[in-house]
Design a protein that fits this description.
- Keywords: Oxidoreductase.
- GO terms for molecular function: 2-oxoglutarate-dependent dioxygenase activity; iron ion binding.
- Its EC number is 1.14.11.35.
- This is 1-deoxypentalenic acid 11-beta-hydroxylase.
- It is a single chain.
- The protein has 265 residues and is an alpha+beta fold.
- The chain has one domain: q2cbj1_9rhob like domain (Jelly Rolls, Sandwich).
- Helices cover 29% and strands 27% of the residues.
- The protein is built from 8 helices and 13 strands.
- It has a 7-stranded antiparallel β-sheet. A 4-stranded antiparallel β-sheet has the order 5-12-7-10, covered by helices on one side.
- The model has no long low-confidence stretch (mean pLDDT 95).
Length: 265
Amino acid sequence: MSAELFTADEINRFQQDGFLIVEGLFSQEEVTLLGQIGRADLAMQQATFSRADGEGGAVKLSVENELHDDIYGAIARSQRVVDRMEALLGDEVYHYHHKMIQKEAKVGGAWAWHQDYGYWYNNGCLFPDMGSCMIAVDRATRENGCLQVLKGSHLMGRINHGPVGDQTGADPERVEAACERFELVYCTLEPGSAVLFHANLLHRSDQNKSEHPRWGFICCYNTRHNDPYKESRHPRYTPLTKCDDAEVLTVGRAQWEQLQSHPSV
């Protein structure tokens, strides 16, 4: 665990605000490879599904519980991500799952206000000691539906969730009250930058009505002490073997080469 990755002030801000933005967490080459591979990855596209947003749009995403020897696994195991999540959550973390949000230009749907723990609570996780690292694959702007958060809303605790279109959203009455009391922050990001956020932080995003796609790669982690008490769609605790940060480029270059040589792989 590497608390030195953050200053005491940054850790305090995460505890108070529920999120922290890290600029340039991944290099231009790394994030370009991630985007190229994701868009050429037929296996990912076959696993992609949509969630209607209740506003006439739909969000496309793919979710994976297992880590493989590919760029997604290298990022999810990378020391620069895992060490930071451990520093912020205060314990050893393990890979809960990862996903690619595919918000395409003009048609990408919205996400309703929700907390990730609003879902994960039902998976047998007793505590909200969980979090995510969302890496911008494309530039994330207000116009193309960047992540929006209510600063400090994680301190409210878990809110009841229910259906919103094909999605599950937080209780609208509570959300309305929270919107009056907490600052709304638009998490605009350059490609390769990331936002790390607590599982109880209220967040959403608008539809993408712009000419520019907004893909984001999200690595989700649970803490060791929060090992779920029952089986669910996401895994229970297994030790996570971290990999050297250099593996992201090494694995990414090899995977991109393979995809170019064998497009059907």
